[in-house]
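Schema walk-through. Below, the input block comes first and the output block second. Nothing else is stored per chain. Lengths vary across the set, and this one has 331 residues.
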Amino acid sequence: MTTRREFLQASAASLTTGLALADEPKPTGNKPKVGCLSWCFHPFSPRADQEQAIEIIGQLGFDGLELILIARSDLQDYWTDDRLAAMVKQLGRHKLGLAQFVMFQPVVEGLSSVNADERARNLDYFEAGCKIGKKLGAPMVNIVAPWARELKGPTGYLPRYYDLENPKLNEKFHIDIASGFDWDRVWEGYIAATKGCLERAKAHGLKLTIEHHTHTLIPDAVSFLRLWDAIRDPALGYNLDTGWTLSQREYPPVALHKVKKHLMNIHVRDIDGMMRKFVHVGTGVMDFKHVAETVQRIGYTGYLSIEQDKFPGDMKETCKRYVTMMREYLT
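--- output ---
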């Protein structure tokens, strides 16, 4: 016979177990997918040949890829209806999914402006990108968070300014900050701009992912969570980049746990031991195995797509190595 105390203890244990299981992601029967970004095989220049990139990626065994709007001029000069229709057929022929359609940060850099008219013009560029993504069959669009327009550094793309490898005598790491810079005003304007992006993305049946880079308004996982708390829209998600995460000295598997409720896409790259250079996959210190284990533990079933900076070496071989490695780790 069970005593009253034993019965209560057993009931409490059962309830605790149930609550613990409720906190775990529900099994979906799906596995994360292995993807590649088109710009692994084309330059960041207007009218870059992304159709050739699709052909290469389709032959390397990937599940899907991402395509990108590189320049505002490409809206008229590259992304024509005929080319979009041809790309859709090309993706189908290679059985490639389209993880998301990306808008390069300079296309919509004015989303961080404190000038409402400037933000409105950039929302129009953003919506033009949404229309392209919709025609390609993408489930979501992506942008890297912009940086405040009041910040200027020695590089055209400010996020790439993050160290002085061999500083000269008296050389300092420095970013110009315009007089009158008001962080609160910039942040509130960016919240408004993100809400505007979501409104336009959802009008085309799309979700929106924000990617983090150094010096931008969203440099890491916690800053994204702050943005999400200010907006609270399930159509807004996080695009985590393993390399940019570790360059911020944030461990990617920990960041994945932080954003698991809002994680919609992952870019994967390697990094050297000094956390400075995004070296070829497999030659740096990124713990890809732990990344793969973590995404499965949190229940993520989207894409893990290689984004490889173009150092000397064979990009096709790097991608083949990545596919083999991730297939093994995700099994």
